[in-house]
Amino acid sequence: MSLRLFLLFCILTGLSSLRWNSLDAMDAVYLRGKLLTQKEEVTLSEIAKLPGGIKDRVVLRNIKEPILLRPDDLRQILPEIAVSGKETLILPLNSELDPEDLQESLSQEIAKLPETKSEDFRITYLDGERLVPSKGVDLKWAGLPQVLHAGQIVASLDFYYEHRKVHTQRIKFKVEKKTSALFANKEIPKGQKLKASDLEERIVYMEDTFTDGLSNADIGSTALKDIQTGELLRKKQFRFLYDVQRGGDVNLVYTKGNLVIKAKTKALSSGNIGESVEVSSHSKEGKLMARVVEKGTVLLEN
């Protein structure tokens, strides 16, 4: 009987102890993991969850650099309050990065990418948080693509405190790639053929991937619209137009003495007046060579 009473006493004592510990935990403030602030003073509610009955108050003033606050640290400040939780890191955002410094820093980071030269790209800050602690943290770029393209990117700026990453800010940049392109050095009216003297080559930075620029191979093509002086030249603005167009209907003319034979056929290649083109025929070979004599008309020569 005495053994049973002893075991019952132990169980009741343990339950009572658990109950009081539970009540103590309910009355304790619980530390939050992190606080980013632009103020120089911090209140208790900003760094901890407060149970009912705990009055908010200022706990730290004149914050100039990051502070790692653990339960024992807070108990020294407020000995009358029970504290639970692991820790809270206070990061004062008391310095603002200059956009030009961000651009220069990211350009240097881009230069580290394989097969990438920083001078091939121009970086421009667009948007994103620039407030950081003035000291006490290391800032490192992350999240950059292995191959950089023209357009926009969002780069991650990581905060490191005591060799561990504690925060990330994402910043948007415009990326322009250096490229060679042809521009009009004079007005080119619609319908005029492109001449070499109409072109001026420039080295420019472009945000869009530029794949449809003109080249010297496009000299002789016809402008489909009016082109202004200084305008960037693209393939969609020009097209090679021929007196006889491949795939189009043509009049085939054959003469011998006073005999003139005319027929309709299809052009198998393109050409201008004086040039030879291929046209379809009902012969065994299926095609004939003829000379363009006027728009839409070819002459079959002996």
TrEMBL record:
InterPro entries: Flagellar_FlgA, SAF_FlgA. One of its GO terms (biological process) is bacterial-type flagellum assembly. CDD domains: SAF_CpaB_FlgA_like (cd11614). Keywords: Cell projection, Cilium, Flagellum. It comes from the Bacteria. Residues 181-298 form the Flagella basal body P-ring formation protein FlgA SAF domain. This is Flagellar basal body P-ring formation protein FlgA. The lineage of its organism: Bacteria, Pseudomonadati, Spirochaetota, Spirochaetia, Leptospirales.
